[in-house]
Design goal:
The protein is mainly beta and about 180 residues long. Helix content is about 5%, strand content about 25%. The chain contains 1 helix and 9 strands. The longest helix has 9 residues, at about 1-10. It is elongated.
């Protein structure tokens, strides 16, 4: 009997355990942008003149995180005209294309509009939007998921050219996650 009593005191007491669960969810980051319409036609533009787009180009954050946009252009192919990268009226075989996010297209392009505005000139270098770069009354900064911005363009024609066929200037909008 003594050995049974010692055995009972040597075994630790075991209580019923309680457990809980945690639901872990995750969403994969989706960075996406759509542009509508996918093209804009300025039509025939006189040498040495400028023309502003009259309808909005809608740029929509199709992703699920806030996005910052960057813009750039590609010169027409085959090589013909070359984009200006600074203010000043375009010369022979040179052009300027400006871009600005603006709700209704009444963008104040800046300066006296006699020459392009540095804050709106598109170049072949990918350039991030800021509070002033490519900005009218909207920006391409911290665009919420499903948020839309309206983009307007202004084209400055070469002062002279030997090319009188339609030229296509691709403009790229690149989206990145906002910090």
């Amino acid at each position: 009997m003594i050995s049974l009593a010692v055995l009972l005191f040597a075994v630790p007491k075991v209580d019923a355990a309680e457990s809980g669960t945690i639901d872990v969810t995750v969403t994969i980051q989706n960075i996406s942008v759509s542009i509508d319409p996918a093209s804009y036609d300025f039509g025939a533009v006189a040498l040495g003149s400028k023309s502003q787009s009259t309808t909005a180009i809608t740029v929509t954050n199709d992703g699920n995180v806030n996005e910052d946009y960057s813009l750039n252009l590609t010169n027409p192919s085959p090589p013909s005209w070359t984009a200006m990268t600074t203010t000043g009226a375009p010369g022979a075989e040179k052009y300027t294309l400006e871009a600005a996010f603006d709700a209704d297209g009444t963008i104040a392009w800046g300066n006296d509009q006699a020459t392009p505005n540095d804050n709106h000139i598109l170049t072949t270098t990918i350039t991030a939007c800021t509070a002033s770069k490519y900005a009218g009354d909207q920006t391409g900064v911290n665009v919420p998921a499903n948020g839309a911005r309206t983009l307007y363009l202004r084209f400055w024609a070469p002062s002279s050219t030997g090319i009188f066929t339609q030229q296509t200037i691709p403009v790229t909008v690149t989206a990145a996650k906002s910090p």
